## 1
Amino acid sequence: MTISPLQQARYGYTPKLPKMLRAGFDGIAVEEGAATEAASDKEKIQALFPNTYGMKEVYFKEGANTAEKKKHIVGVILSGGQAPGGHNVIAGLYDALKSANEENILLGFKGGPSGILEDNYITLTKETIDKYRNTGGFDMIGSGRTKLETEEQFEVAAAVAAKHEMTALVIIGGDDSNTNAAVLAEYFKAHNTGVQVIGCPKTIDGDLKNDDIETSFGFDTATKTYSELIGNIERDAGSAKKYWHFIKLMGRSASHIALECALRTRPNICLISEEVEKKAMGLNAIADYIADSVCSRASLGYNYGIVVVPEGLIEFVPEVKKLIEEINETLAKHGERFTKLPTWDEKLGFLTAALSVESMKVFNLLPMDIQEQLLMDRDPHGNVQVSRIETEKLLSNIVRNRLQQRKQQGNYNGKFSPLHHFFGYEGRAAFPSNFDADYCYSLGYTAFLLISYGYTGYLSTVRNLAKGVEDWKAGGMPITKMMDMERRGGEDKPVIKKALVDLEGKPFKYFEAHREKWARESCYTYPGAIQYFGPSELADETSMTLRMENDEF
Amino acid sequence: MTISPLQQARYGYTPKLPKMLRAGFDGIAVEEGAATEAASDKEKIQALFPNTYGMKEVYFKEGANTAEKKKHIVGVILSGGQAPGGHNVIAGLYDALKSANEENILLGFKGGPSGILEDNYITLTKETIDKYRNTGGFDMIGSGRTKLETEEQFEVAAAVAAKHEMTALVIIGGDDSNTNAAVLAEYFKAHNTGVQVIGCPKTIDGDLKNDDIETSFGFDTATKTYSELIGNIERDAGSAKKYWHFIKLMGRSASHIALECALRTRPNICLISEEVEKKAMGLNAIADYIADSVCSRASLGYNYGIVVVPEGLIEFVPEVKKLIEEINETLAKHGERFTKLPTWDEKLGFLTAALSVESMKVFNLLPMDIQEQLLMDRDPHGNVQVSRIETEKLLSNIVRNRLQQRKQQGNYNGKFSPLHHFFGYEGRAAFPSNFDADYCYSLGYTAFLLISYGYTGYLSTVRNLAKGVEDWKAGGMPITKMMDMERRGGEDKPVIKKALVDLEGKPFKYFEAHREKWARESCYTYPGAIQYFGPSELADETSMTLRMENDEF
């Protein structure tokens, strides 16, 4: 491996800890708050977590450490998609664990949750950890998407933990992984395994967020990376003055990424899936909304602009949702016959017969490559892979059609030349920003504090994040406090509620108050590349979303 | 306009000048070297430039300034695509001009070369300049693609220059624009207009390079931006371990961008158009070359990887070139009839009859969306818009077919899941790196020195760039020295030769010596985001290409 100059420089970065943790492991005391209750469906959740329900909130503070002095053997798992800072969670965990007792051991289970099921691990050493400090990616131990959720899996995990004489397991993941961490904690406790489970909130999507989690890690770095690119494209568009750029960003269920990037870069248009769903905006309404901006800018002489959309958008558009369902159903029944049809026109004929008239109308609106994507790229369950659909092209196509109509009616006289982008993989493994580097290191450090003080079924929490690091507050929250019951796959399940964009929240309200002006004028802002050095107001600032939600903007 | 924290911080950056220019305008003397000759076709070029041929090379040095003290009114034009640093050329020019004489005036012609033809300009003030220092984009005065090349245009330009009592015009552009700058300089001199013309070497493509131009500005920043993204994707790929990323980069005629990014990030595969052309590699050879890497990595358990290709690649693949020519010809003749064919299958039937058997075979290899692109997106001359063709998808498709064959033959047993990216607009308007900020400012400053010392038909040159800024050498070179005669549009024309990737040069040789290992193993390097602050070896380092070409790597 060749080390780039930035990687070399980042090795020299010491993540900042909250002031309350700076006294060192022996100088950190614990304080308990009130007992907690589930977010809703309290009785049902209490019944499902008889051993771990109703535990108290936990805070750390300066003071004599009263944790039981025993040797800890801790396992750690990275679960799901990459998010910048994952390596720093492990580094913080490792440093706390070793500062408590040099004989403590940290095991890294490889390739995600399947690592513990297959007993596939490495013992993490200083040498390994040092190679990954303040770097992006999850490649130190790898990640994976296996879900730890069945009784059989828990038994295997317990056996592996017992074999290694493990005292605790730290799971770094999103809402599903932390839900499963709580269920596993309950299982371990119920079966007297002596193994504690602690979760850490990870996801670039920003949808693992609630009263106790101000932001998930990785969101800051990923959105800064996408905002760099959007800003660069804005500046290019305003210089070349000839393209409309349609930019799709990751974010399937929630649109936090798109909203944050819009707040940073002020594009002409940003669509928010939550709003599209709430207003039941169809393709026509969306096409008109964008075309209105194109037309009003054209009338000012600006035949260029920027449209930002979240990846998941089209699943929230009523008639597209219906079309996708009908195609899924048709291909589930007749897939083999359909695939054998030798020509494209025969396939179209088949579809025309099989789909509803309205859905076929929608289908015919789509550009040919997207029609193909809807029919060809299917996941193992036979469903359309929505993330593969080039929503950005679909939108520019319906806008183009709309503009042609307006031109014929004499209501538009501009030029419309669209270009398309999708940003996602570019940001998931970036070097963590100072914010994410500090936040993640603190989360990992706090996770070990929770372990040492004997807690299980807790999420490591670091709060007051919109303030300077010295004022951050580290602690722990019972995962069951964040839960309610939801219908998933035909069953009622306890889950951590996914945080969608709050249409009444301050970030969206700010966007809503400004977007009319942004749509017409060029209010572009150019954030540029993430800076790890330089003035603190540049290198240490965090997301607009977090700052606005905490009245720091 | 809202100013981002980085933009605010960059306003505070003072570009570094070469030591020889640090004494201030009054302390800079000139020295002339030997008379120059054209690169080849000397007599023909001398005949075309009777008034500006054979001038002497010029160097600047510390010493008493002996330039004639007169008031200067200088015009400046940005020509062609955006390149980071353009604003700094103008800032350097402005600062030198004002430090020579507060009464000097700088006019910015708007929207590219057409600005002088339409007499569309603004008078540049400190207030305007200060808003654009160290920022990306060309939006201070805009750019455009009009070519200044006809006698009629020259007459208009001369009239506009006379109207403003201009003493000089600075043209910031690529090889064509600087060629035209030389022709315009000759015209102005022949017609005794008293207007000097100075060129500045701009292009992110890096193909304006020769004995006298070590690199064009913008190349450094653009390739750093693309390398950031490629590195992030590499790290993501190595963490997720499930995708092959096909990444297309700008660079139509030359592959300097792809090569530089490959040197920085060490992807598994990087194709260089110059090599593909030289070896007459067809699609089959390319598919096999990539598939070999996929298979050898799969045998090591790595079902992921990175393929980098230049935008212009397929124009260098013999059979695709032929296919495109045949399609262009067919549609030129029968376009209207073809467009009216109601179904895709009828269009295919038409093509089958019209194209050669071999070309139809190539056409059938292509995925449907690329077939559509070849048939639909045409420029005003009826030609395929090659840059719109998703070469990255074309390649992954032929590789997939090849892998299926190998699987059937029992020679491959991996998984192949491709993802696609195109990076170009993301880098053209980025905040200039310290290198480009310093280089551009020095180019602009030097351009005014050339003007003040009375030179015309010169390119502003800053050399010794692989060393620290203090050792850079500023001067000027007659543009005719860089010229030879080429056949363009059926005529012999004097042009600055485009610099293609030299397959015998050090950057390519280094790549060639390492690529076999990179293809099999994961030698990824993660450059991360451009840093404007921090340690000098990080923030001030320049491109690998430049360093290797000058033995500084």
## 2
Amino acid sequence: MKPYVFNLLPEDDLAEKLGRIRRYMAETGLDTLFIADNGNKYYLTGRIFSGYIIVTASEVFSFVKRPTCFSEDEVILIRKVEEIADHINVRALGRIGFELSQSPYNDIVRYSKALLTSDFGNADAVMMASRAIKTTYEISKIRTSSDALSAVYRKIPSMYQEGMSDIELQVEIERQSRLHGNLGIFRIIGQEMELNMGSVLVGDNADNPSPYDFAMGGSGIDPSLPVGADGTIIRPGSTVMVDTNGNFTGYMTDMTRTFACGEVSDTAYAAHRLSIEICEAIAKAGVPGTKAADLYNLAADMTVSAGLADRFMGHNSQAGFVGHGVGIAINEWPVLAPRSRDVIALGNVIAIEPKFVIDGVGAVGVENTYVVTANGMEKLTRAPEDMLRLDEEI
Amino acid sequence: MKPYVFNLLPEDDLAEKLGRIRRYMAETGLDTLFIADNGNKYYLTGRIFSGYIIVTASEVFSFVKRPTCFSEDEVILIRKVEEIADHINVRALGRIGFELSQSPYNDIVRYSKALLTSDFGNADAVMMASRAIKTTYEISKIRTSSDALSAVYRKIPSMYQEGMSDIELQVEIERQSRLHGNLGIFRIIGQEMELNMGSVLVGDNADNPSPYDFAMGGSGIDPSLPVGADGTIIRPGSTVMVDTNGNFTGYMTDMTRTFACGEVSDTAYAAHRLSIEICEAIAKAGVPGTKAADLYNLAADMTVSAGLADRFMGHNSQAGFVGHGVGIAINEWPVLAPRSRDVIALGNVIAIEPKFVIDGVGAVGVENTYVVTANGMEKLTRAPEDMLRLDEEI
């Protein structure tokens, strides 16, 4: 077999990322990063592989366990982490940052022994901070994912059939999404939150509490995955909120649209309209330098003025944020929350999801993914935002 | 709202698990287990929640962060792990086992501070050993998943249409599976291996190396998830190996079936037949007390006799096992591998997957999930095993 090219990133993309990473390394007193997490390895190579990346101030070493098809000009093939010391002078690595918030305890113990260090720091903040600023190449991938998910969402009314359950509609959306190239995998940083292909919430199920820190809950169909659709039949008078997987390129987009089945209350329409207005207000205000907490407060104030604060981001269980970074994973930086210390920066990609729960009707609101430009946020998720009837074509 | 019942397990099921866990705790010198992992929490409660379980020699404490809908007779509601010390005497917990192979380094540091301990051990081996022996209740869940996946697999020939790609067939299988109640989530212990809903491998793509320790590889359609279907059109002369998600109940089953498109070579049929024979031989030999390594060697010897050893479990990249435990996760104990020290025990649930790659044709073989009884292994995955033509109904 001809060796495969290992690093799939455009040269300037990798250079931009490394420049930022090395600046943050210097700021946090780290001489070296040791990268084992799939998301971070993908960020630095454009591919998932079994192995490790070592980043120093001047060099990048790729140690690969599997697959073994790459040229040894590009990678160093190893069988286990202990072999790294056979190939490079690990004593010269200085203070190493490991992914302490992500890698298992025993892995860190093993890595630090293999690299002969006991005084180490945390690589996660460096990587999260760098990943928060998307490169042109990354933005193009998120744009592609956004366009694909928008195309799928436009077809949703045509997927609906009278008498369907939430699960049945979700399965049709999943199918269309997969046929449009959706990869299926839903990457979430951290081990606690789990999700399959996203969720479709109908009627009062939207307010059933879930263990996860998602904007909306839902019971799910089994206590082993207590989130999302629970088998509710879609009946006139309820809303159908669709918030499903947007990973078509390795980079995710995040979009929610709400549909009405039959006639729903004026309150539901008003809250839905408010959600769109909040998105627009945040997008306009969110220029580089803005405090993420201020954007959350802008949203919260608008819900107070409208008398909908107690319906904002759930009712029985309210989520404490209105937006979050999106990229390789669904929960990147910055976070738009009351106590967030994040500051909006050029190149951030942020999902904004002001959602409301209306008793007896269900969830309403939209979610859009934006890229931060010098003039504010540009919306990437372009499916129609109005609460359309499920029986109308969009 | 009326409080929800927290622990969903039958009483005798939980009692059996706790009995085994406490025996292993005593054997490994642990007085207490501190459980944070979703799979382990599900094992002990029948539900996923945000929080922790503490198991001592005489008590079980459930600390719940979210959702907050449970009765305080059953759970202790907390906001953060540090509050545990307000509710129980953490100094009396003795030597604590944390999930050192699974929980992130920083989480372990935080937990050990919160519980005022610095001398701790590893809970993972205890939990893995207990989870390897399935209770009657767990086996009934795996049986349900097996029957559901068998029903889906029987429909595969009816999903096939001429000119389809591997992805298109996979999407139809996923859709049918989801409509039969598949939960979608694919739990794998450890952070490295990732998979969406399993894989469909057509022709030579089966031998493309993947970074994961799976029996077969496949390129995938994107380097961010380099496994499985790669867009190959299903053409006469190739095989179609289907190995997709069997999680219908929180407990997984694992089943592979291979279909032929048109005429395939006699070698392919012979290797497929050998796979079925290896399954049958292992199932017969696998009585309690058998060494797992002996079962691997039994399989390997049969491939040598048949002259197919270099095609066994891949060719360009061969996997080093022929079977693995299945339960809440796809990679439980025991492992049937040459250097495994596991011993087959009553109540093990094991997937056996002797697979072969035939040049120019593709992957062949079956995978079945078995429960170990006193007389050997009982097969739970009952879809027909012969390599049927995709255009025949099964």
